[in-house]
Design brief:
Chain lengths: 114, 108
């Protein structure tokens, strides 16, 4: 079975622009979470969606938004990009069987804001 | 907000040595998990713990969920070069919290 896939792999944007990152979960997983990982730090929780409903939100500004589609794939949108948004954005999927806590991560999207 | 204190920040060991790292928090978690991250990749789940006092093994890895539910440790026995990477403890709950990571370096 395919693991979690993310696109694009790398992205370069300019300050003030908007970006959309995409994630496809493992087949059968209905929950998707998004994380931001700045170089040298642990991932920071942004959102979790389960069955298309937002289940949890981390301490990120309203410039960050996400949604989950009927096929359980997800998009993360970031508006008005700042230099500090440069990071690796990780998507993880999980299933109810694992308590939604046992998360399987994709390889990430490396976002660079110039 | 909730924070996890993970230590040590880094470890330099010889192949064959045992490794121990731990994680503490001022908050209670219902679930503790340990992940490993290799360069350029997403974290990979190593062990999940669901009950206070639970001791779980996965090959050469052993982890325990602290009785107070505020801490956890991970042991790696007989380290090998492929154990190199960053190990993260994770508190599972309404908001999943990652520790800052322990960077493990293994010298052959």
């Amino acid at each position: 079975d395919a693991g979690v896939t993310q696109s694009p792999t790398h992205l370069i944007k300019t300050r003030g622009q908007q970006v959309t990152l995409r994630c496809s979960p493992i087949s059968g997983h209905k929950s998707v979470s998004w994380y931001q990982q700045v170089l040298g730090q642990g991932p920071q929780f942004i959102f979790q969606y389960y069955e298309k409903e937002e289940r949890g939100r981390g301490n990120f500004p309203d410039r960050f938004s996400a949604r989950q589609f009927p096929n359980y794939s997800s998009e993360l949108n970031v508006n008005a990009l700042l230099l500090g948004d440069s990071a690796l954005y990780l998507c993880a999927s999980s299933s109810l069987a694992g308590g939604l806590y046992e998360q399987y991560f994709g390889p990430g999207t490396r976002l660079t804001v110039t | 907000g909730q924070q996890l204190n993970q230590s040590p920040q880094s470890m330099f060991i010889q192949e064959g040595e045992d490794v121990s790292m731990n994680c503490t928090s001022s908050s209670i978690f219902n679930t503790w998990l340990w992940y490993k991250q290799d360069p350029g990749e997403g974290p990979v789940l190593l062990i999940a713990l669901y009950k206070a006092g639970e001791l779980t093994s996965n090959g050469r890895l052993t982890a325990q969920f602290g009785i107070t539910r505020k801490d956890s440790f991970l042991n790696i026995s007989a380290s090998i070069p492929s154990d190199v990477g960053i190990y993260f403890c994770v508190g599972g709950g309404f908001k999943t919290i990652f520790g800052a990571g322990t960077r493990l370096f293994v010298k052959a």
